[in-house]
Structure formats: structure tokens, C-alpha cells
Amino acid sequence: MRIAVVQVIASEEDSESGRFCKAWADLMRRNLDLVKQQETGVTFLFPRRGLTGLDAFFHTYLHRLNDTETFHTVLNAEKAGFDAVMMTCFYDPMLRELRQAVDIPVVSIGESSLLMALTMGAKLGVVTVSPEAAYDHEELIIKYGLKERAVRIRPIPETAEEQPQALLDAHHGIEAFKKVARELIADGADVLIPACGLMAPALRLTPGAEREYPDGLVTIDGVPVLDVLGVTVKMAETLVGLKQAGSAWISRKAFYAPATPKARELGQMVLDYDGPGYWSY
After folding, report:
1. CA angle 185-233-275, nearest 5°?
2. Which of 108, 160, 187, 279 could join 92 via S-S bond, C-beta 3.0 to 4.6 A?
3. What is the pTM of this model?
4. pLDDT band at 275 (very low <50, low <70, confident <90, very high)
5. The CATH number, out of the four listed (3.40.50.12500, 3.30.300.30, 1.20.140.10, 3.20.20.20), of the domain defined by the range 111-228
């Protein structure tokens, strides 16, 4: 089984930001290795064009404009023979649109984490990357029909510059997350969700803080911290397994019905995008 892990932060492979992305991918790969099937291979795909830093994702209009790159990366991943696509942004960029467009499973950390959390507890506590992101994540929760199961969303008290440092030394990020997590627990949360593909592996593997957290940050005051990346890769494996077995794995009746040949003909100019593309790692 081959899974394409699609990233949303753009970089050139040999640039300083590209080296950061590789370090990030290395940490995510370690996280995925904890739970994925041994025979499942993962390849990280990074766009060459798009938003180049976490700050930009705090603003809806910017990350929505970035979604076109994500869309075409996924189309190309299907053409390249990947069995599934996993997106590592909690905004779930173009998730529903992509399920219309391709015939392989597409999963994302937002939907996968929220759905899995329903099986783990009664009230979900979501920690976002910024106050601005909280509005988008609240909208996402409402879209998935989970408003009654979620307590107030709270942002982590770290800047966009501070948060990536957790890839090397997670001490500050852990303390910032624990502060917000305890506020959510006081609000009634009994499952905690780190709502970011960068935050999540730093908490699960605690780089630089392994002595204090040899098993990672998996609970706070008895409340589980959901393994966001682990949950999502298992969702991808499950859907691929169903598809390969000939079982139903998606509905093509209504929302995820594929475009008709006529519709694709009329949309050919936008489908024939030949932008900068992506690099893999």
C-alpha cells in the first residue's frame, strides 16, 4: 500500500525552508511508523508554489487560495499510482471536492481526528494554532455536525515563529499545550485534539524532551491526547483495505458523484493546470 502524504506549506527542495520541511517530514514519518502497517509506504509531497509559512494559514482567504495547489497535487498523486492520499492540515483543504475528483481514498487530519475522538470520549477539546484559526475550526466542527460534542476551541499561546521550534525542542510547546489543555478539561473536555500537522507530531514524540516524556505526551491529567497523524493514516489504510477487498468505501450517489464527461470537457482549462508542481521526500 502506497500513501501520499500531502503537505500544504510550499518550498523548494534545496532551500532553507525545504530543509525545514524534510526535518518536519522525518518527525511525521516516525509518528506514522508507530501505528501504520509495516508494509505501508508513505511518501511526502511538498508543493513548490503556495504559502511559505505558518503565519499565512491563520488567515482564511490566504489558505483557501492555497487550496488549488493541494488539489492538483492530489490529482497527480492518483496518476502516479498512490493507493490513498493523506492531508496533514486540520483545515481539511478541498477534502470534499477531492473525493469527487479522484477514485482513491482521500483523508485529512481534521475530519479523521474529530470522528475518532467521538469513540474515545463524550466532549472534544480542540487546541488550535492561533485565535484566527479558531473561527475556521469552529466552522469545520459545525460542518461535520459535531457542535454539541465540542467544548470551546482554544488557541495555543505561542506565536507562529515559536511553534516550529518544537520540531527540535518540544519543551516550550508542551507547556503551552498543557496550559490550554487544562482550560479545556475545566470546560468539560475528555479528549484533547492538537489541531495542527506540525503541533501533533511534536507532542506525540516530544523531541528534546524524551527524558521527561519517554512515551510522548499521550495524556494530561488522565485525559487522552489524540494521536492525530496515527489516527489519520489508519483511516487511510482502512479505506484502502475496503476498496481492495471489493467492499463499499465511498458513496457516489450524491455529494461525491463524479463529474460527467460533459462537465469535465467544460472544465478542461482548469483541470489542465501545469504549475510548478511538487517535490517528494
Report:
1. 110
2. 108
3. 0.95
4. confident
5. 3.40.50.12500
